[in-house]
Amino acid sequence: MITLGFVYVLAGLTFALFAILGLQDRGNPKRFGNAAFWGLLALSMLAGDYLGDFGNGLLVLALVAIAGTGQIGRAPGGEVAPEVQAERAAKHGPFLLLVALIIPAVALAGTFLFKWVPGLADPKQATLISLALGVLIALAVGMARLKPPALLPLQQGRRLLDAVGWAAILPQMLASLGAVFALAGVGEVVGDLIGTAIPEGSLFGATLAFGLGMALFTMVMGNAFAAFPVMLAAVGMPLLIKQYGGDPAVVAAIGMLAGFCGTLMTPMAANFNLVPAALLELKNPYGVIRAQVGTALPLLAANILFIWLFAF
Amino acid sequence: MLVLIGILIIIAGFLLRFNPLLVIMASALATGLAAGLDIAAIVAAFGKAFNDTRYVSIVWIVLPVIGLLEAYGLQQHARSLIGRMKGATLGRLLTSYLLLRQAMAAVGLTSVAGHPQTVRPLVAPMAEAAAEAKNDALTGDQREEVKAFAAATDNIGLFFGEDIFLAIGSILLMKGVLEGYGYVIEPLHFSLWAIPTAIAAFLIHGLRLRRLEKRMAQKRIGRETGA
To answer: What's the complex ipTM?
Structure first.
């Protein structure tokens, strides 16, 4: 049976090869930093379960030290010239599109297959495992037809990852920070603060505080999942559900979506907001957030209104 | 109250544009110390969480495939495809992607599309081509905005589609938390109550995409800041 362990090995090997290829890139003055950074990430993927909690913590400290002191960077160039790309596109265009669609198609098919046919792969991780299989199949099909130099996919993949840089592990770092916040009880403190700020006896005031609180606290934590239990305990449960008799399904479901509006507006949700900006090589790292605020604010207002209209 | 120092460090660090990895580590250490943990315990807690959330970073394994396809001109092909479709305006293109992303997320297919898999190789170059079709003098700033909206559309489609799916993490979380208070609720109820917001998200963002299309069609010669 295929488990998530298989995907971690695949990711570990990919990062390890990026590290080795990066080391050989003599045009990059920061090649040692790059190699160490991706090498440590490879170690985490391959052997994280054997390092122990403190060992993993030291690994993270090393990653932060390398990136935080500016030891990683990218060498300029490395991309195929646009004219060559255009020439090749004219020849291979439809095939390239087909290969690009293999990844989502396999992810889709595998997700269903692994849920319906037990024993092939861990059904809880079906999509991630299928995604990895899709990558392998797409790579094999692409290599067979295009016959590029053997290392080209890895070299180009490394170039793309170097463009993203340390932001590649930002989402994982923020998720880990959330765990430390939970351990320290940050959520309860924030919940108490918001709970005391609500005007007495106002149903709309309480709804407003709940919706805004979900969005604001999500912006701070970068994740609506962290905000939900706190805001429910501080406002949703004692006031909206218990005191005013609101429908718990409505309060919870739409409250969570109010939190998602916060996710659209915060750099703390790095994988959605900062990583794409790096991946698309935008000049403004907050460009994606700027594009989202205009949707997030009216939608937040709509959510607060929906709770007020539908829950009571 | 003292544990809130971590939040202050995060906000200040992001505003002052320090390296976010350093800011996160500083925040974790300060928060842990304020809560009375010793340094070794904080490092271990952070390490455990980092190891438990490795799945967040495995998406980068798609990069060799994307790199291969881009070296052979996938972005150019995506652009020329849009160039040949006469009805494919920027607004229609991104609105269709929004709907597709919402619909797929609503049936649980959240990882099928995404920023590395679909936005960078396909949606962003297609959106650029669609904008160029109406405006042959697209400025660097306009190009940035089009790409940023391609990414934003992916996020909005995902967020306001996924909660309609019964077995998504957030629904399981809501069910679990409410059960802790003694309310047993079927996941279907949460799913149904996600639909009004999904519709509102589609309408609001769809409207903004139409306005984006109009804005991008305006030539802004003289405001070029470099492509």
So the answer is: 0.84
